[in-house]
Amino acid sequence: MRNIKGCGTALITPFDDGGEIDYESFRGLVRRQLEAGIDFLVPLGTTGETPCLEEEEKERVLETVMELSDSRVPVVAGVGSNSTRHVISGISKLSKYGPDAFLAVVPYYNKPTQEGIYQHFKSVSESTSAPIILYNIPGRTGINMTVETTLRLAEIENIIAVKEASGNFEQISELIRLAPDGFTVLSGNDDVTFPLMCTGAKGVISVASNIAPFPIVRMTKLIAEGRIDEAAVLHHRLMPLFKACFVESNPIPVKAALALSGLVKNRLRLPLTSSLEQTDRLMEDILKEIEDL
C-alpha cells in the first residue's frame, strides 16, 4: 500500500471547443504536475467535472493518468456517487487500470443518517481489497460525516484516510487527535492546509495546485520537515489564489486561470458555464502576483 500524503492535485478535465475531452491538453497538465514534483494525483473528482463524464470517458481519463504517471506517484481515482451500488460498480470497472486507491464522497442529496453513511462505506470497502479514502464535504453533499462515524470507519482495514472539507476546524482537529495509527487526515480545502498540517494532517487534495503545483508542493514539504516559518510565507503568498479558486463554482476559476496560461481552453460542460469577466481579471492579477513562486 503506497503512502498517500503531501500535495495531491484534484485534476481538472479539459474540453475542446466541441465539448469533447481534450486529451492532448490533459496529458500536458499531467506532465506539468509530475515535473513540479507532485506527491500524488487525483483524477475523476468533482474538480474534474466527473458527474458530466460518460463511463468510457472516465476509464480513458484514468488510463491516461496511469500511463503517464508510470508508477512514479500514487494515483487516487474518484468514484463518488450517492448510490452504493454505483460506487461499487465504478470501482469494479476502474480497478483494471490499477489505481493505488479510490476516493469516495459521502453520498449526496439522499442525506443518509450516520448509520447509513457507515453502512455505505462499509459495503464499498468490502467490495474491494483496494484502499479507500473517504471524502467529507457537507457543502456539496448536504450532510456532515461526524468524527464518530469517521473513526468507526477508520477501524476498517482498507479505509486508509479521509479528505476533510467540512470547514469545521474543531471537528477536523478532533479527528486528527483521535485517528488511529495508519489512518491519514488530508485537508480538502487549500486555505486551511497550513493550519491543519501544522496540527497533524498529512497533506492536501488540492484544487489550486492545478494552477501552481510547485509552490504548494513546496509548502507541504516544508511543513512536513518542520520548517514552519518558511511554509507560512508561502501560505500567505498563496492565500489570494486559494480564495480566488472559489469565487465561482469549482472548477470554473481554475479553468479560467489555466486558459489564461495557455494550457487549456476555457470550456466546461453544462450545467457549469465558463468564467465571468471579473473572474478572468482576478485570475490574471493573481497569476502575476505568484509568477515568481
Strand order of the largest sheet: 2-1-8-7-6-5-4-3
By CATH, the topology is TIM Barrel
- Count of individual helical segments: 12
Strand content: 5-15%
Q: What is the CATH homologous superfamily assignment?
A: Aldolase class I
Q: Tell me the CATH architecture.
A: Alpha-Beta Barrel
Q: How much helicity do the residues have?
A: 40-55%
Head-to-tail CA distance between termini? 33 Å
How many domains in all?
1
Main sheet makeup? 8 strands, parallel
The outline comes out as: globular
- SSE pattern: EHEHEHEHEHHEHEHEHHHH
Mean pLDDT: 97
Give a quick summary of the entry.
The chain is an alpha/beta fold. It contains twelve helices and eight strands.
Break the fold down into its secondary structure elements and pairings.
Layout: E1 6-10, H1 23-35, E2 40-42, H2 55-69, E3 76-78, H3 84-94, E4 101-105, H4 114-126, E5 132-136, H5 138-141, H6 147-154, E6 159-164, H7 169-178, E7 184-187, H8 193-198, E8 203-206, H9 213-224, H10 228-244, H11 252-260, H12 277-289
Parallel strand pairs: 1-2, 1-8, 3-4, 4-5, 5-6, 6-7, 7-8
